[in-house]
Description:
Elements: E1 5-7, E2 14-16, H1 19-44, H2 60-71, H3 76-98, H4 103-106, H5 114-124, H6 133-139, H7 172-187, H8 191-206, H9 212-238, H10 247-250
Antiparallel strand pairs: 1-2
Helix pairs in contact: 1-3, 1-5, 3-5, 5-7, 7-9, 8-9
Amino acid sequence: MYYNVVIDPLKGVGVMYGLDEEILRCYFRIEETQRQRLWMERLYHPDKLEWKTNPPEMCRTTHIRLEEISGLGFGEQHYRAMIEIEKDNQKQMKKLVAEHVLWPHCERISCMGHYLTGAFVAAGGDITRAPTVSAFWKGMGLDVLDDGTVPRRIRGAKKGKGKNERRIPALPHVTRIGEQIRSQILRSGSKTKDIYDEYKTFYLDRYPDRALMFNHKAALRISQKLLYAVLWEEWRKGYGLETPWPYAFAILGHPNEHKLSIEDFYGERPKRNSQIIVLVGDPVDKGNSKHG
């Protein structure tokens, strides 16, 4: 019942209703209630937050502000309501994610818990609109330009077609979710962190004179793209959709044994005959080029 694909007559594009949409809606509810809860917590209960120094003291201006926003309905009662709504939606997210086709895999990847799996599904949106992994990367804000560099805004550059400027690759929540996933990759002891360490060593050896931050970002970006690639493949397979091989293997003819599968991200890093493969289009051959 969750996996029916229908056509939206207003837009004429495929829309995946059901479980994916429910997860997206639940994510937005969590995000908004959390935002309001943290905002009000800073005002009404600053002692609950971590401060480098002592919490700010109540002044006359803050007192007036609290009186006015309380009059608008953003008082202590609203704060308590946000706490309960956030908890309820966290529970709902856990139930929804447990039914998703990705969860049997994500529960075995230490950097992908219930919430982050749901957030990933919310960011991915309509998987039917990403027929290739390259299309999925682009929708998730991990695309590259024709010259292999990451698109970005350039100070002083004029806007217009053909300009090497930062295109907005995705909706704001997609960017935030990507940041959360990158953070978890670095914190976890997962296989994805092992891939990051492997690529970081590779970049440090290849570009010893380049700023360390560039090598760090390059390794983190590749490890994130590889994780996204295997999750995209399993997501599409779960819905009975085609999963064509990536360009590097289908067109350039890289050895098939170098292609990672979802099992490679389970638990401890398995022993295999590995080789550093530069993802086609990634900005690793640009020497001192800046990339995200």
